[in-house]
TrEMBL record:
Gene Ontology molecular function, alphabetical: metalloendopeptidase activity
Family (UniProt): Belongs to the E.coli NlpD/Haemophilus LppB family.
Domain LysM: 50-94
Protein's name according to its UniProt entry: LysM peptidoglycan-binding domain-containing protein
Gene3D superfamilies: Glucose Permease (Domain IIA), LysM domain
Family matches, as CDD domains: LysM (cd00118), M23_peptidase (cd12797)
Pfam families reported in the protein's UniProt record: LysM (PF01476), Peptidase_M23 (PF01551)
Region Disordered, residue ranges: 99-145
Source organism, top-level taxon: Bacteria
Biased composition (Low complexity): 99-129
Organism: Pandoraea horticolens
Length: 265
């Protein structure tokens, strides 16, 4: 009879597999972070008085308006370099720091009273308002790569840069989903809330494409795919019952209009 292995031996032999799984999960979470602005927000702790934590769907303009401030104020108070790029969970100051104000200083009033025959004192010149730093120009895609349409159905919703950071393509359950360009699968799973069964493919020049709400995923993480290869089947996972493909194109985390990369229909 084969002697049984000790508990310490079992733990030791199983450790590499456990560590491998952890590393895979950490990599997947890091890739998913590029889409965090579109997904639901996790639960965070309280923020300091005068601050606000960015929620899913927020824009800097909307946050400023809700707090009686301007976009330029928030850019200045928070040292933002790109006002179009705020992240879910990010804490922003929404009131002026101590010793500063969101409005230019009021003009000093002249003193004394006017009398007949006497010249009125000249009003002091208004100080020039401090100019806020100009918002950073929106990023433009560089070294674009040509892509093919990832699904054949009609376009249900187009990219608008805020509430929709991709295009939604309709169809029937089970319709094929294709890789828009050749690349490597860096995520295949359902761990990102709001996207259902999701596939993400990394391409040349720092581009990444995302394919959401699939009924079935046909590729595995780490697999290389060719342009036009079937990688999933259309479905309605986490899409409130609407069968569709939500397709995004990003470069280094910044979303761009997918139709700028796709051929005209």
């Amino acid at each position: 009879m084969r002697p049984s292995r000790s508990q310490s031996e079992v733990r030791k032999s199983s450790r590499p597999h456990w560590l491998t799984r952890c590393r895979t999960q950490v990599l997947s979470l890091a890739v998913c972070a590029t889409l965090a602005a579109c997904a639901g927000s996790p639960t965070y702790g309280p923020v300091p008085a005068g601050s606000y934590r960015v929620q899913s769907g927020d824009t800097l303009y909307g946050i400023a308006r809700s707090n009686n401030a301007s976009t330029a104020d928030l850019v200045r108070w928070n040292g933002l370099t790109d006002p179009d790029k705020i992240e879910v969970g990010q804490v922003l100051r929404v009131v002026p720091p101590a010793g500063s104000s969101s409005a230019p200083a009021a003009a000093a009033s002249s003193g004394g009273s006017a009398s007949s025959g006497a010249a009125r004192p000249r009003a002091q010149a208004k100080p020039a308002p401090k100019s806020a730093p100009a918002p950073a120009a929106p990023r433009t895609a560089t070294n674009r790569i040509p892509m093919v349409w990832p699904a054949d159905g009609p376009v249900l919703a187009n990219y608008n840069g805020s509430s929709n950071k991709g295009v939604d393509i309709g169809g029937k359950p089970g319709d094929p989903i294709y890789a828009a360009a050749a690349g490597k699968v860096v995520y295949a799973g359902s761990g990102l809330r709001g996207y259902g069964n999701l596939v993400m493919v990394q391409h040349d020049n720092g581009y990444l494409t995302a394919y959401a709400h699939n009924r079935a995923i046909l590729v595995k993480e780490g697999a290389s795919v060719s342009k036009g290869q079937k990688i999933a089947e259309m479905g309605d996972t986490d899409s409130h019952g609407t069968v569709k493909l939500h397709f995004e194109v990003r470069q280094k985390g910044t979303p761009f209009n997918p139709r700028d990369f796709l051929p005209s229909r």
